[in-house]
Amino acid sequence: MEKLKRMLDVDIDRVEEDGNKVIVFVPEGQAAKAIGSNGCVVRSVELVLDRELEVKESS
């Protein structure tokens, strides 16, 4: 989880795993930063973890 937090460069509220998918909940307003320009941050994390990544805002 610490590695994931460092790669996304945002606070992480919680992480859920669903099969081959990792769902990361971030504070409201930080999802865009976590996703990156055109999804580049998400894609690079997916390549490192070899798993699909989904970023959602906490409510």
UniProtKB/TrEMBL annotation:
GO function term, MF aspect, one: RNA binding
Name of the molecule in the record: Uncharacterized protein
Organism in which the protein naturally occurs: candidate division MSBL1 archaeon SCGC-AAA261C02
